[in-house]
Structures are given as C-alpha cells and as structure tokens.
Write a structure and sequence with these properties.
- By secondary structure, the protein is mainly beta.
- Among the domains are: 46 residues, no CATH class; 73 residues; 94 residues; 196 residues, no CATH class.
- Strand 17 and strand 18 form a beta hairpin.
- The longest helix has 9 residues.
- It is globular.
- 48% of the residues are buried.
Length: 700
C-alpha cells in the first residue's frame, strides 16, 4: 500500500488521456472522482501497489542430485544444473542460487552469458549459505603419498599423466616450485639462449626433462619467464619466440635497468628441490614430488592440484551484455594458467601485459639495439596481450562481487573489462557499473584485480559500448599476492572512466599496491614528445596515431586506502602509482606505510600524468621518496606531466622529487614534514579512517 497527499495526487492526475484510460482499465485501483471536494484540500488516498514476486531460491549442495528440482528438500548437485534452472526463471523473477557449504569441483569453467543474468529488470544472485563460504574449485586432491627419499624428505604421489600445473596448494597455501638461483655472471645472454661461462654450471646438461626447465629473470619492474629447449655442454638453448621476445623492450632479461638488483633463476626440475615446501610434477610418468618440512607427513596434509586454467567467464556481447548478476559469500580457488610453460613463455612488459608471437622487423642484435626500446618493439605496444584472470568479466553491466574469497589462484584473480584475448568468450572490454566490495584476496600467483584493457579500443573505443566505466572497488582486503608474477600490482586500472578505489587494505606485495593509468602519455591528446622520432620513434609506425581526443581515463578516485609493505622486490613504481592524463583524478586521504629501501616510493606520478590532485595523504616510514613526479626533464622545454597538485599531505620520511614548477603547472605546497609519529590530529584521523570500514560507515 502507498499513501499520497492531495498535492501529489493532483500531479499524478495531470497525465495524458491515454494514461488515465490505463488507470481506469485497472479494476483493482480506485479512480479519483470527488468533485464535491476542493482539490487543494489536504487529504490522503491509499492506492494498493502490487508487490514484487518473491525471489525464487534454488538450492545446491554437494550431496544433492541433479535430478532434484532445486528446492530446499531436493537440492541439485552441480552448478551447471543450477544454471539450467536459472534460465527457466530469470525472465520473470529474481533468482537466488544458494550454495550449501562444501567444495564444488568444476570439470570445466563456468560460463555466464546474457541468458544467465537478470532479464527484464530482474536480478540473479549466486550466494553461499550464511557463513559457509562454499569453495568453487578448479583443482583435484592429491592423495596416496609415499616417502621416496628419506634423506631429503621427498614424497611422491600419482597424478594423471600429462598433468603439468604451474601451481600447487598445500594446506591452503600456494607452494613454490623447485628452483635455484644462478648468478648472472655465470652466463652470457645470446639471441639463442645462455652461454654458460662458469664451468660449475655445465652439469646442467646432465639433467632430464630439459625442455620443462624455465628461466626466470627480474630486475627493475619486469618478471620474465622463458622455457629451455635443450642444454648442450655449455649452451642453454631456449624455446622461441618467447626467449627473443624477452630480449627486447625495457628492463629486459639480457640488459636489465639495474644489474645490481637483477636476479636470475632456474625453475622446474626435480634436481632443484633444495628447500622444504618445493615441488615438481613429472607429466610423462604421472608423478608429483614434494619436499616436506621436517616431521611433516604429507598424507595428513591437504594437497590440491589445479586442473583448470580459469574458473569463471562472464560475458555477453556488446549488443546484449550480461546484466544484473551478483556473487556473494563464495570462495574461489585452484587454477593454473599454462601459457608460460610453452614456447611463448611470458615476455612480461608491465603488470600483467606481455608480448607474444613473431615480431616484424626484429633487430639482428636485440641485446645491443633493443634494450631501451626500438621500432620493432614500439610497433607492438597496442598489440600487447593481457594475462587471463581466474574470474573474467567483459561485455557486462551491473555485476557485483561482494564478501567473497579469492585464493590459491594461478594468475590475476579478477579481470574486469580486459582485452578480448584475456577472456574465454573472445569478447573483451565493455564493463560498466561493476562493484567489487568487501572481498578477501590472498595467496595468489598474480595480482588481485585488473580493470580495463590496453588495446586501441581500450583507450579510444570504436563504439561506446566498449568503454569501461563506473567501477567501484571498495573495502577489500588484499595481501600476499603476485607470488609467481611479481611484476603485477595488487590493483590495476588501465583505461576506465569513473573508477573508484576506496577504503581497501593492501599489504605484503612484491610490486605496487594500486596502479592507475596506461600508455605513458602516448595516447593522450597531442601525444607525448618523449615518443617522437628523435627519441623513441613510437609514432614512426603509421598505426600508432597521435590522437586529438582524450582517452576514456578520467575521474579516477583513490581515497581512504591503507597500503603498506609493498614494493618488496622492485625499485620501480610506487605504493600508489599513476600514469597518463586523468582529468578529475583524486588521490586523497590514503595511509601509505613501510615502503622500505633507498628507492622506495610512496606516491608516484609517472609519464604523462596530468590533472591529478594529491591531497591529505599520510606517508609513514618510506625509504626513498614520499612523492615522485616523472617530469621527464631530459626533454625540456617540451612538457609531459602537467597541471598536477600536491597539497596538505603529511610525511615523516622521504623526499619530494620531480619538477614542481609553474612552467609545468605543477604545484606542491602546504605539505607538512612530521617528526616521527607525532602526527597532528587531522593526519591521525586519516590513518584511523583508512582501510576497510565497518559495515554502514560512509566516506568522510
């Protein structure tokens, strides 16, 4: 029932004749016919409103049966059967799929198309039973362990032949693969592979399964992976094109930006099992080896081997996107993205992007001529690919992930509006009104959340529906991520309009906490003089346009986050990092703490950053720079980073860096150096209010 005043009713009655006719045609609704009353007199009239139909609840339980009807007394067993039932109901009703506690092991990834979302204004919700957090797993348990090497405490179990995962979970944690570190001085980098210089390392040629050994290198901001083909005497011959692609660009395997911090590893041989907790899979024999800790009985441990490369794919089409789909109270686990184990390797460029395939115009001497960019590399920038996430979402609107758990996943956990190749649907981008709130992301091989793509359609959509817009990431807890792909930020937003990253708690990560922006200014109006012919030659390729229109990156808000103990491996980047023009961008009231090392940077405005306001942040215990602006002074008087403002911030360590001048329109003023922990009340309030907020608290 709804009550209207006379004034409101008079307005309601001022309708067209057809509308009045429609009202009169409803026999259960009273019609206003009271000529004896003064229409201006205040009175109330009660009009009954038909209630919405109650949502249909479909029940799923591990002990259920797909012959059931989904009622509480006859739950179905599989998520696929629940999907089939949803499609018979969601045109006319809201539908809730309620999963009882337990583990649901997928034989193939779940695929949500437009038919699986809410239709006709209805909503479909997938949720765990109260407090249960049922597990949606892409793995299988490994049992039947036997001790095969008592001296080194190495155990063995049977697995399906051909299984070659890159991740393994033991007692709810990702276990590291077998690996050893090799001094860079022990080898020389060649286009075909590694020349062994130190005779002590020539014993590598005696190893078995040489084509499953992986070379990993990391330095300033990249973590690169390439596969061995064979080892002959003093030559480690590498698989192509992955090796060649890892030799070009910036911070490459052969010529890292800093040799002082660069490290090189050999991974994935049984001979490399030197430390407790390491493991190795032999797909030819169908056996899994694990080096246990002293006193550990592996048969009493829960060991999970992932068999799926991703868990969930959500995507319709640009003309018919997935709508009104929600996920709550679920626990997503156990995937392993396998591409890096092939001849492409993982030619990492930055935070989940990589080069693949044969490059046209590849230089004859890439180590000499393409370790600080070159035309062949610059030509590929708009063709970089993105790592597929474990849970993928594109061509979708009004999708919510709330109060879920993401762990033990073999790549980025949640991908929103990424490139087409990063989606099983083959359709990328096109994500709007997406909410990610109050989830826990922990113990991941890659980053937690990656929003946006990196293609031409990502920064300048060829049709409006491709844009990524209105993304809300709030009150999430993220820790212990990017174990195997260390160059990935915990949260990355490339190109999006109106992204809000608010009140998240991010800690214990090898690279950045929050990264926003892409393109290094090259796709912003007028382009970037840093990439003109006289320097990096990006625009020499006729496909690489100088745009007169802005990208879709604008109005980003990074507010109220607590970010600490990040950048544990890489000097580059910042705890909070920004790139390229972003009109309306705001970085405010964040608490950044414990960014150690002489090169540690708290807040970093990198190439082409424009129109960014940095205010009222608290910077606590940073080793190098509290605020860095890459103003690219080497190309002065040409300008790139413009019209940024830093005001009212508090810091107790670090220095201000960059060209904060009127010529660039950059202002840094009113920032306060604090002695130790003597924070003024306003700064302490920022600290206290940062991070995940209690339910119901509003942004201040």
């Amino acid at each position: 029932m709804r009550t209207f005043t006379a004034t409101a009713l008079a307005l309601a009655c001022a309708t067209t004749a057809s509308a009045q006719t429609q009202i009169q045609d409803q026999p259960d609704l009273p019609v206003f016919t009271s000529p004896e009353r003064d229409p201006s007199e205040h009175f109330s009239i009660v009009i009954p409103i038909r209630p919405e139909a109650e949502p249909v609840v479909l029940h799923v339980a591990p002990a259920g049966s797909d012959a059931g009807d989904g009622s509480a007394g006859a739950p179905v067993a599989s998520l696929q059967r629940a999907q089939e039932l949803v499609r018979t109901l969601n045109d006319t009703r809201d539908v809730t799929v309620r999963l009882a506690g337990g583990t649901y092991r997928l034989k193939q990834p779940l695929r949500f198309a437009a038919a699986d979302g809410g239709r006709g204004g209805h909503v479909v919700r997938w949720e765990g039973a109260d407090g249960e957090y049922p597990v949606i797993s892409g793995g299988v348990p490994v049992t039947g362990w036997s001790l095969v090497d008592p001296d080194d405490n190495i155990w063995r179990a049977d697995i399906p032949k051909g299984a070659a995962p890159r991740q393994l979970s033991v007692d709810g944690r990702l276990a590291p693969r077998a690996r050893i570190e090799i001094p860079r001085s022990a080898v020389r980098f060649e286009t075909w592979g590694l020349q062994i210089l130190d005779p002590e390392w020539r014993s590598l040629s005696q190893l078995t399964d040489q084509d499953r050994i992986e070379v990993e290198g990391m330095s300033w901001f990249t973590h690169r992976h390439a596969m061995v083909e064979r080892i002959e005497g003093d030559r480690i011959v590498m698989q192509q094109p992955g090796w060649r692609n890892n030799l070009i660009g910036y911070d490459t395997l052969a010529r890292p930006i800093s040799k002082e911090v660069a490290r090189l590893f050999l991974v994935n041989s049984r001979a490399f099992m030197r430390e407790a907790g390491q493991w190795y899979a032999d797909p030819a024999e169908g056996q899994l080896y694990y080096r246990a800790a002293e006193g550990q009985d592996v048969n009493r441990s829960l060991v999970e081997m992932p068999v799926l490369e991703h868990l969930v794919s959500i995507g319709g089409t640009m003309d018919d996107p997935v709508r009104d789909l929600q996920f709550r109270g679920l626990d997503f686990r156990h995937t392993s993205w396998l591409q890096p184990s092939g001849n492409e390797g993982y030619a990492s460029q930055q935070s989940g992007s990589y080069i693949s395939g044969q490059l046209a115009g590849y230089p004859a001497d890439p180590i000499r001529d393409c370790s600080w960019g070159c035309p062949a590399f610059e030509k590929r920038r708009n063709h970089w690919q993105q790592q597929p996430a474990a849970i993928q979402l594109s061509a979708a609107t009004r999708v919510v992930f709330e109060d879920n758990r993401f762990s033990q996943l073999g790549q980025i956990a949640l991908g929103i509006g990424n490139n087409p190749e990063a989606n099983e649907t083959g359709i990328g981008l096109g994500a709007t009104a997406i909410e990610v709130k109050r989830n826990i992301f922990t113990d991941l091989a890659g980053g937690a959340i990656m929003v946006g793509g990196i293609s031409r359609d990502a920064h300048h959509p060829s049709r409006p529906e491709l844009g990524v817009r209105d993304i809300l990431i709030t009150d999430n807890t993220i820790s212990g991520v990017s174990h195997d792909y260390k160059e990935q930020a915990a949260i990355l937003v490339t190109y999006a309009t109106g992204a809000i990253i608010m009140n998240n708690d991010i800690s214990d990560a090898p690279y950045d906490g929050i990264d926003v922006g892409w393109g290094w200014g090259i796709n912003d109006p007028g382009g970037s003089p840093e990439y003109y012919r006289w320097h990096r030659s990006y625009y020499d390729d006729p496909e690489n346009l100088i745009y007169d229109t802005p990208t879709i990156l604008r109005d980003t808000v990074i507010v109220g986050n607590r970010v600490g103990r990040v950048k544990q491996w890489f000097p580059d980047g910042g705890a909070i990092y920004h790139l390229s023009a972003d009109p309306g961008a705001l970085i405010a009231r964040n608490y950044v703490y414990d960014v150690r090392g002489s090169g540690g940077i708290a807040i970093y405005l990198d190439e082409g950053s424009r129109y960014v306001t940095v205010r009222e942040n608290v910077i606590d215990r940073v080793g190098g720079v509290w605020l860095n602006l890459n103003s690219q002074d080497a190309i002065t008087p040409r300008r790139t980073a413009l019209d940024n403002t830093a005001t009212g911030n508090w810091y107790n360590s670090g220095r201000l860096q960059g060209n904060w001048t009127a010529y660039l329109g950059n202002r840094a003023e009113g920032n306060v150096k604090v002695d130790g922990q003597a924070w003024p009340a306003a700064a302490q309030a920022v600290i206290d209010e940062s991070g995940v907020q209690p339910v119901g608290d509003a942004v201040k």
